[in-house]
Amino acid sequence: MTQHTPSPWATSKGAYGALHVGPAKLDHPGREAAQYAADRGRDLLAQRAADAALIAAAPDLLALCERLLGFAHHYADASALLAGEGMLASAKALIAQAKGAKP
């Protein structure tokens, strides 16, 4: 099974308003993704399919993170466990990022 492109990801605007999504390490993620994948011995089409699956699941992943935070706020044991592992802060930061907040 081909893995999706590892994080960090970034978005950038291309010509005519096109939006590119891809590895943050690249100056032009959409244009250089083929070389990025080739350098790592990956099948670009399979990697893009894996990336597309991840992108399609993103809204549900975001909703689940928000529900988990709500659950943690109602149950002290869960909240303490998640806070102790740094997961509450990470989840809050990722939710903000997913909603467009700048780091």
Question: Topology, please?
Answer:
Elements: E1 9-13, E2 19-23, H1 29-39, H2 44-74, H3 76-84, H4 87-98
Antiparallel strand pairs: 1-2
Helix pairs in contact: 2-3, 2-4
Describe this structure in words.
With 103 residues, the chain is mainly α. The chain has helices at residues 29-39, 44-74, 76-84, 87-98; strands at 9-13, 19-23. A two-stranded antiparallel sheet has the order 1-2. Helix 2 crosses helix 3. The chain starts with 8 loop residues before the first strand and ends in a 5-residue tail after the last helix. The mean pLDDT is 75.
Helix-strand pattern:
EEHHHH
Strand order of the largest sheet: 1-2
Number of E-type strands? 2
Mean pLDDT: 75
Number of helices: 4
Sequence stretches where pLDDT stays below 50 over 5 or more residues = none
The major β-sheet equals:
2 strands, antiparallel
Strand content: 5-15%
- The helix content is 55-70%
The radius of gyration over CA amounts to: 17 Å
The coarse overall form would be elongated
Terminal CA distance reads 32 Å
Tally of structural domains = 1
